[in-house]
Each structure stands twice: as C-alpha cells, then as structure tokens.
Specification:
single chain, 269 residues, alpha/beta, Spore Coat Polysaccharide Biosynthesis Protein SpsA, Chain A, 9-stranded mixed beta sheet
C-alpha cells in the first residue's frame, strides 16, 4: 500500500529555517520509509535527493496552499506533517503495516495518529470519532486523510487554526473518522507562536544542529512558562467526555474575554 499513502510536510517560505532539520529527521529516524515524502514551499526551491519539493506560489492562506499541494499529489491518502516537528526516535514499519491494514479494511476518511483528544470508545488500538464529537474532530498534525475528503473540507481563506475548529464542524457530514491509541511517532515540537521552544533548542544542541537565532529567536523563560500553563487546560479538556468539551471551552473563553485576556470567543458550537 506504500504508493497509496504519501507524506506531505506542510510549510511556507517563512519557515525555511526548519526545512533541513525536519527532512533530516525523516532520513535519520525513518530511513526505510516506504512512502513518497513531499515538502510544501511557496516560491523557494528545496532540493533533496529523497524529498520532493512542491511549490505552491504566493503565500495567500494556509488552506489554499494546502489545496494547491494536494492537487500535485496522486496517492489516495496523505499523511500530514508539520515543518516544525522533528522525529526523535526510529519509526517502526511494522506498526505502520498494522495501520495500513486498518486503513484498507475501513476505507477511512481520517485517522489521527495520536490518542488525544480521546474518543468515546476504543476498539483495540483504534477508536472511532463519531459525527457528533466535534471538538477538534479534525487535526492537522500527524494525521492520515483521504485526500479527496481533506480537499473537500478546506476553505481557501482559512488558517490552520481556523480549519481545526471550523473544519471539525464541517466534518460532521463524514463518518469513518478514527484515532489511534498507540502513537507511531516520537517527536520534538520545535516552534510555538513563531518562537523556538527552549526544550527543542536544547535537543537540537545535543545533536549538534545549529539554529539561526538571528532569524528566529527563542522563547523567553516567561513566555515558556505561559505556554506550559496552557497545557494544563488542554489536559483537563481531554479528560472530559467528548460531549462536554465545547461547553467547557466556551465557558473558559467567556471568562478570558470578561477579564480582557482575550478579544473574542473562538469556539462556538
């Protein structure tokens, strides 16, 4: 099934400083990857013997960029990866053999290769995300999509964050959305809010990988603390039953708006 799945590393020219790191992480930690790997860029050409470059032109929006890239891929399924996420341990192809069998057996529309947010029910290593479970029902990172389904859900003007929220609502017309309990990847997330994360820089340093901090600075200690605090909210959300997550998040955001920490509510069911 190797030719039925492609890997697309989504990026834009503003993140060119991540390209060599993310592609090398695939070479180092998934050297026997059976799938074609594509890197999406705007107008800058990226040349690599094992990575195919898809140029989509002017950076108009994340969704439009992705639609243009998908039009240049022929595989039925596409695994979406992010430019600022770096593999950090070897990927087991046997695990992917099991994933491929599940995809083929169930003719999936979407398979999130992470366990969070948790589904209502697990069936072995997989769980179905039902059509009424709209809280981040779709996600960008580490997910395998039926390429046509993904293309149908994209709206040209949306950012990646808009797509995960509004696209989740639009996805209710589709069934066969799943997630996996045992994640096949171990990785380092490098950048948050446009800044290098401190733990990522420490990891890169151990691997003797240089980063241009003049082009993109590191988070301050205070910024890193604020980022970590937001994780507690996400942890609590994922412990709630799926049907309560939207209500809690809307209440949480109303409080932030009232305290003037946030301008408007994002999640509306």
């Amino acid at each position: 099934m190797g030719k039925d799945i492609s890997i697309l590393i989504t990026s834009c020219d503003k993140f060119h400083d991540t390209w060599e790191i993310v592609t090398q992480s695939f070479i180092d930690y998934w050297p026997d990857c059976p799938y074609d790997i594509f890197l999406m860029t705007n107008e800058i050409t990226y040349t690599h013997s094992k990575i195919k470059n898809i140029q989509v032109g002017k950076d108009e929006s994340w969704s439009l960029n992705l639609k243009k890239a998908l039009s240049q891929i022929n595989s039925k399924y596409v695994l979406i990866w992010l430019d600022d996420v770096f593999l950090s341990q070897k990927v087991d192809n046997y695990h992917f053999d099991l994933i491929e069998k599940f995809i083929k057996k169930n003719s999936i529309n979407f398979l999130r290769l992470r366990a969070i947010p948790v589904p209502s029910k697990w069936d072995g290593d997989f769980g179905e995300i039902y059509q009424n479970e709209l809280f981040y029902r779709v996600s960008i990172f580490a997910s395998i999509w039926d390429r046509k389904t993904l293309n149908d859900l994209l709206i040209d003007v949306e950012s990646a964050w808009d797509f995960e929220i509004k696209g989740s609502i639009r996805s209710s017309k589709y069934n066969k959305f799943y997630c996996i309990r045992n994640e096949p990847f171990t990785y380092i997330h490098g950048i948050e809010k446009g800044l290098w994360k401190i733990d990522a820089l420490n990891w890169l340093k151990t691997r003797e990988i240089d980063v241009d901090l003049k082009y993109r600075r590191s988070m301050s200690i205070e910024e890193a603390k604020q980022f970590k605090s937001s994780k507690w909210k996400n942890l609590f959300l994922n412990l709630l039953p799926p049907k309560y997550r939207y209500d809690f998040l809307n209440l949480y955001q109303k409080i932030l708006v009232k305290l003037k920490y946030k301008k408007h509510i994002t999640f509306i069911k």
